[in-house]
Amino acid sequence: MSEEKKQEKTENPQAEAAAAQAPGSEKAPAALKALIGEKLGMTRVFTSSGEVRAVTVVKAGPCPIIRVKAADSRDGYSAVLLGYGERKAKSVTRPENGQFKAAGVSPLRYLREIRVQDPKPFKVGQVADVTGRFTAGDYVDIQGLSKGKGFAGAMKRHGFHGMPGSHGASDKERSPGSLAARRSLGRVLKGQRMAGHHGLETTTTQKVEVVLVDEKNNLLYLNGPVPGPRGGFVTVCETVKNLKRVRIIVKSTIKRDKMGNIIVDKKPSKKKV
Asked: How far apart are CA 70 and CA 85, in angstroms?
C-alpha cells in the first residue's frame, strides 16, 4: 500500500504539469498591440532593393493571457496580464502557482500588464503571438532593463567634465568637484549626482522600426536600439509617437540663373493699331 501511494504521489505532479503545459489554442485579438519578448542579438538583412540593414532580433511570444482586469471590477482599471518564458515549478510560490493553474499554463518566468481600452474580447488562456499583430514598416516602443555597468564614477555615470589635469590639481582629474553649494547650509542636498551603481534601470526606446517579421518563428527584426543584454526580457508595444513623415520632393519648374535669380519669360507685347 505504501508503494502504491508513493507512485500516485509521484505521478500526480507529472500529470498536472503536462496539463498545465498545454495552453489554450485560441488566439488573442489583434487589437492587443503588445508582446513580451527576449533579445537574441544582432544580425543584418537585405531588403528587396539590395540595401543592407543592421537589425536586432527579438523573439516575441507566444504570450498566454494569465488574467483579465476590468474597470468596473474591484481592480478599477482595464488591463491584460501577459506571461512569457519558462520557469521551474519549485521556484514558484503557491499564490503564483494557483494563478497559473487557473489559466491552464505552466509556470512563466516574466509577467507584464498591458493596459487596454475594452477588456471584453480578451479571455484567460488566449495566446498572443506575432501573427497579425506587427508588420514590416511599423514603429514600436521597447521597454527593458538597461545593461549593468557596475559601480561607476561621476564622469561615466552623469557625464561630468572633470577637473583640470594641471596647475596644482594632482590626482583630481576625475573628481566630481564640490558637493555643497552654500556655506550656511552645512549639508549635501538630496539628489546630488555622485558616483554609484550605473545601469540596470528601466529604459524605453521609442519609434523603433520593424524591418522584418518572421511569423513562423515569432521573430521581430528591429532597426534601432533595444535596451538590455542578450537574453534580457523586453516589452514590445505599438509606438505612442506620431508616424514617420515621408518627405516628397517635387522638381520645381521655376527657371533660375547661375546666381539663383528667377528668370522671367518676357512675352512680346501686342502693339495697338
From this structure: 25
Q: Does residue 189 lie in a domain region? A: yes
Element (H, E) at 108: strand 108-115
Backbone angles phi, psi at 40, to 5 degrees: -100, -35
**3-class SS of residue 90:** helix
User: How many domains is the chain partitioned into structurally?
Assistant: 1
- CA 137 from chain centre, in angstroms, equals 17
Residues 123-182 have pLDDT tens digits of 888 888 898 889 988 899 999 999 999 999 999 999 998 888 888 777 888 888 888 876
Helices (H), the chain: 2-20, 94-103, 154-158
* Grid cell digits, residue 124: 484567460
Q: Which domain holds residue 166?
A: 149-198
In-domain check, residue 174:
yes
Which of 261, 272, 267, 222 minimizes the C-alpha distance to 42? 222
65's grid cell: 493571457
**Whole-number Å distance between alpha carbons of 10 and 4:** 10
Full 3-state SS string of 135-152:
CCCCEEEEEEECCCCEEE
**3-class secondary structure for 215-226?**
CCCCEEEEECCC
